[in-house]
Specification:
Layout: H1 5-16, E1 21-24, H2 26-32, E2 41-44, H3 48-54, E3 59-61, E4 69-74, E5 77-83, E6 85-87, E7 99-101, H4 105-110, E8 120-122, E9 126-128, H5 133-139, E10 141-142, H6 148-154, H7 157-169, E11 172-173, H8 175-184, H9 193-204, H10 209-215, H11 217-223, H12 244-254, H13 259-267, H14 272-275, E12 277-278, E13 284-285, H15 289-303, H16 308-319, H17 336-363, H18 370-389, H19 403-408, H20 413-428, H21 436-445
Parallel strand pairs: 2-5, 10-11
Antiparallel strand pairs: 1-2, 1-8, 3-4, 4-5, 6-7, 8-9, 12-13
The protein binds adenosine-5'-triphosphate (ATP) and magnesium ion (MG).
The site of adenosine-5'-triphosphate has 9 residues, from α7.
């Protein structure tokens, strides 16, 4: 295993001062998997004060001191160094009530959640693997350190973390760990939303997301109760091959692994069971499900304490997930003025996201082939690329005239906004060039 030079140096400096020190947790796991760790965490017998002595004069960040963490920044890269510790009780299922520092790394490794996360490494001692983490990595298994039930009782978030790691690395969850996770899932209700958020979003973006969603809808329903009724829900509709949960899982898998898109797909049809109606011939319809799903999405985003920008985007993508992306006349979905009007409404980034969502949603019905939908997506993206290359006008901000110009023409109050809107539509529809003189002339002479 190769440690980056700064990590080797940090360990050596601590050793020279008489303290054992190791790389630990995610970075060891990822290195053994042949992945590049996104950060390097260290643990040591030194107390924070003692670490501060060792690294005196360097750029230090002290935010984690209470929990025994001192961060040393080298070349703008932060390295978290944490004193060996054991966690106190998690009476609120959220935070350990206290932490106690210990002098032995084995106690520190034993408090960690999964065997694959409980390994340490130092150049002197090599791999410290007290719980067969390496073997579980080879078997591609997520397994609790110790008694799974007790570990999930201590901190219920670990239930979701098990699903998250299984999804990200495309591992299975070991049988007893999985059974305990199901049995303890209810206690996830008491875990703080922001802790859930991080794990859920990583889960949704993992390679094995679809498989984990299929295997554990019961656990996910504790966080998002609207999932439960979707499982096994037959849509009685000839446009759908699968039950609503399977459709949803496929839709999630069908969009790129970006958190907004994946969360939007997870929630896009949650409103369906609530608005279901039946026609005389036995077909079911779900009119208005988009708005109900959007409302549900808003609630979920709030529970997860998502930032406002992400919440607004997810809610918008859910609300408009099946807005028509072609003109009334049918096949022409790359029509210029139509695209400009969609750009005006959604902006470029969200419009592209809606293209991706459409593709995934359609393939996930089982009634359209990936080839056909890919072809359609390419056409739409290409048309949009070409259009954007022209730097087209599709907002009032881009328009060659503004409110002051119109005041100068004698327009007042509400007339101004209405006239600007008409001129913008004229430009988007190709009736007028986006040129100041042309537009003012049109305002004076054309009955619009
Ligand atoms: P990532 O690549 O997502 O950062 P990670 O393994 O570093 O993965 P973190 O959440 O950053 O995950 O946690 C760092 C380490 O701390 C874990 O590897 C694990 O050993 C331990 N850990 C984190 N959260 C818990 C928890 N809730 N219970 C027990 N151990 C935990
Ligand atoms: Mg980490």
């Amino acid at each position: 295993m190769h440690l980056p030079t700064p990590v080797q140096d940090l360990i050596r400096r601590l050793n020279e001062a008489g303290f054992p020190a190791y790389a630990v947790g995610g970075c060891v796991r990822d290195s053994l998997l042949g992945l590049v760790p996104h950060d390097w965490d260290l643990c040591t017998a030194a107390l924070p004060d003692e670490m501060a002595d060792v690294f005196r004069g360097e750029h230090l960040v002290e935010t984690g001191l209470k929990h025994g963490t001192l961060t040393v920044v080298r070349d703008h890269i932060p390295y978290e160094i944490t004193t060996f510790r054991i966690d106190g009780e998690y009476t609120d299922h959220r935070h350990p009530d206290s932490v106690s520092f210990v002098s032995d790394i084995s106690e520190d490794l034993a408090r960690r959640d999964f065997t694959v996360n409980a390994m340490a490494f130092s150049p002197d001692q090599g791999l410290i693997d007290l719980f067969e983490g390496r073997q579980d990595l080879e078997k591609r298994l997520i397994r609790c350190v110790g008694e799974p039930r007790l570990r999930f009782e201590e901190d219920a978030l670990r239930v979701l973390r098990a699903l998250r790691f299984a999804s990200v690395y495309d591992f299975e969850i070991e049988k007893e760990t999985a059974a305990a996770a199901r049995a303890m899932a209810e206690s996830l209700k008491r875990v703080a939303g922001e802790r859930i958020r991080e794990e859920l979003l990583k889960l949704l973006c993992g390679r094995g997301a679809g498989r984990i969603l299929r295997q554990y809808p019961d656990i996910l329903s504790v966080i998002i109760p609207e999932i439960a009724p979707m499982v096994g829900y037959d849509q009685h509709n000839h446009h759908h091959s699968w039950d609503l949960w399977e459709h949803t899982v496929r839709a999630v898998e069908g969009v790129p692994p970006e958190k907004d898109l994946r969360l939007a797909m997870l929630l896009h049809d949650t409103g369906k069971p609530r608005v279901q109606t039946e026609t005389p011939d036995g077909e079911w319809h779900f009119r208005g499900h988009q708005a109900v799903s959007a409302e549900i999405a808003e609630g979920v985003c709030d529970t997860l304490r998502l930032d406002n920008a992400t919440r607004d985007r997810v809610v918008l993508l859910v609300r408009y997930h099946d807005i028509p992306l072609r003109t009334e006349s049918g096949e022409i979905n790359t029509d210029r003025s139509f695209l400009l009007r969609r750009l005006n409404r959604f902006g470029e980034a969200d419009l592209r996201a809606l293209f991706l969502i459409h593709r995934a949603d359609r393939i996930a019905t089982g009634y359209s082939s990936p080839e056909r939908e890919d072809q359609r997506l390419r056409e739409r993206m290409n048309a949009l690329d070409q259009l954007m290359a022209e730097k087209p006008c599709f907002t009032l901000k881009d328009l060659a005239v503004n409110g002051n110009d119109l005041k100068g023409e004698g327009l007042r109050g509400k007339e101004i906004g209405a006239a600007l809107q008409r001129l913008l539509e004229d430009v988007m529809d190709g009736r007028a060039e986006n040129d100041r003189e042309v537009l003012l002339d049109r305002l004076r002479n054309v009955e619009i």
